Amino acid sequence: MIKMLIFNLFFFFAVSVFIAGFLVADEKMNKEIRSYQGKNLSSIDDFRENSIKGPRKVDLKSYHLEVTGLVGKPLSLTYEEALAGFKSQRKVIRMYCVEGWKLDLLWEGLLLKDLLEKAEVKPGGKNVIFHSDDGFTTSIELEYILKKNLMLVYKINGFVLPPERGFPFQVAAEGKWGYKWAKWVTKIEISSDVLYKGFWEERGYNRNGDVSGPIFE
Length: 217
What we know:
Number of strands: 12
Order of helices and strands: HEEEEHEEHEEHEEEE
CATH architecture of the largest domain: Alpha-Beta Complex
Radius of gyration: 21 Å
Mean pLDDT: 90
Helix content: 10-25%
CATH topology of the largest domain: Sulfite Oxidase, Chain A, domain 2
Distance between the termini: 73 Å
Shape: globular
Structural class: alpha+beta
Largest sheet: 5 strands, mixed
């Protein structure tokens, strides 16, 4: 009798855990945007972890987004100031990884050109260097950023960027290989050095990072 009671309690607990897990997964599926303006979207869960030090957890209490270098008005913005101070944009962008996979996702954020305009880039500024919380760096030429209206994003498929995806900010480097999509961005530096090489570029990856070009130098 006691064994039967224990078995029933264990069975009830197992079923409850399964149902709870299913409901959580179902809730996420219902909230994540999987189609936008007639385009089917990949899932956030389709990403593969390939950062240099693993996912980061940025503390917003001490976080500031800095815009430095060749600018007339250096910026140091809290997360809230960055979100409130610039118009939000949405766009479906395909991200290509050099590992061979690609994802179509809905990205939401602010235009980098608006941020740089506020910082008043000086005439000598030609290259934009992105610094991440894990020490990672990469760069994209200013002309490309302005021409392509690249975004600094804080949402993906309707969700605020999860820590593993780059919270609080990631560069949506449309037309560039994934190693140009800097995550956990803490500082944006305007430089005159158009030959700057970041983390992966120092290891032989192409400095321009165009998906239409070679992966390696």
